[in-house]
Amino acid sequence: MKRMPVIFAAHGSPMNALAKTPFTEALTALGNSVPHPQAILVVSAHWETEGTKVLYNATPPTIHDFYGFPKALFDVQYPAQGPLNLAQITQKLIPGSKLSEKWGLDHGTWSVLVHMFPNADIPVYQLSLDVHAPPEKHIEMGRQLRSLREQGVLIVGSGNIVHNLRQIQWRDVNAKYDWAVEFDAGIKKALDVRDEKTLAQYMEKFGSAAELSVPSPEHYWPLLYAFGASDEQDKLSYPFEGFEMGSLSMRTVMWS
For the residues of the chain, what is the DSSP string, one character each? Predict the structure, then answer.
């Protein structure tokens, strides 16, 4: 079985699920470029828990975890099956984690996968974000997932390196703030040289640019899992780079 790559996919606005843009076209191309997965494990910014949970549901529901959007977005379904055996294997890889039926596929997962794998014919499950774990622990949990790549599992972290909803420029989709560009470029440089200390201690490294770019950590953390699941032998690439509405970095990363 061919070793699977690891992906950190930006997701931005839920409306990207319905859009056809250079970003969503890049997701489609990315899905077409990777080996066919046996299953997909997503670490989404939108499942935060006390401790770490592994989704254990044979028919995970499509969760519309937002409000104020058009009906067409709420009509989207992603009826992928859940790989129960792999969920059990994954739970054993992360000490102290627990299986959970009480979730489904949230929009951090399906808004990306509708472009990468639109047929929903690959089993999908999720790993939650432990709200009490420090950045270093999120990287370590990514390492603990690394062996899944040998079993045909595509590991996808879904979030945004820069994610500040209060600073969004709704009227200018192509806007970008200087602080957002600074932080995104600094994290790219850290990824390029596998600078784990900078990735974990981003607040100390980037100061106010980090405070503005990561006002809360849940959209940044999935990057740390993807980084942890990668290794020095992987080739690093950036399938998409850019910003939406000033304060959302859409940088997407692949290790293969």
Answer: -PPP-EEEEE--SGGGGT--SHHHHHHHHHHHHSPPPSEEEEEEEEEEESS-EEE--SSPPBP----SS-HHHHT----PPP-HHHHHHHHHHSTT-EEE-S--B-HHHHHHHHHHSTT--S-EEEEEEETT--HHHHHHHHHHHGGGGGGTEEEEEEE-SSB-GGG--TT-TT-B-HHHHHHHHHHHHHHHTT-HHHHHTHHHHHTHHHHHH-SSGGGTHHHHHHHHH--TTSPEEEEE--EETBTEE--EEEE-
